[in-house]
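Please decode residue identities from the backbone states below.
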């Protein structure tokens, strides 16, 4: 287990994951449980989908916020990011409903994902989202802190 004390979209995180993949070529299990704003989660999905291989496992935590079913005042978050990302990249992941529903409740509805063998390039949900992204998201990318 390795914990990164950095923004998840920082290029150092992606570089470390690449290095770990070379050092340990087996399956990867990743949990996204940082900044739960939609913009950030969409960037994480775009970045990490390119790093994950067939069969790797990804959990997007706290997709239950913004009224899914808790904290309706939250605003767009992980649920909205996952649904928009998967709409643009239908073959990128299979949902693992068996694990998602195993205990009858989860903090990560629609967030149990298994990377598929798809050869399709990852479509850019940030580009598709257009003006819905915040100025902070664009600024952080322009400063080189993300790896789109």
């Amino acid at each position: 287990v390795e914990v990164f004390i950095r923004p998840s979209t920082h290029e150092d995180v992606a570089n470390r994951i690449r290095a770990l993949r070379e050092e340990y070529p087996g399956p990867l299990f990743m949990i996204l449980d940082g900044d739960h704003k939609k913009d950030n989660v969409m960037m994480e999905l775009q970045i990490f989908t390119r790093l994950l291989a067939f069969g790797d496992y990804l959990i997007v935590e706290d997709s239950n916020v913004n009224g899914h079913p808790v904290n309706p005042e939250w605003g767009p978050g992980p649920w909205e990011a996952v649904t928009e990302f998967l709409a643009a990249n239908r073959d990128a992941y299979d949902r693992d409903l068996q694990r998602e529903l195993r205990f009858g409740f989860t903090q990560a509805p629609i967030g149990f994902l298994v990377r598929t063998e798809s050869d399709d390039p990852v479509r850019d949900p940030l580009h598709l989202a257009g003006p819905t992204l915040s100025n902070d998201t664009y600024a952080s990318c322009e400063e080189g802190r993300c790896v789109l």
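Observation: The longest strand covers residues 29-32.
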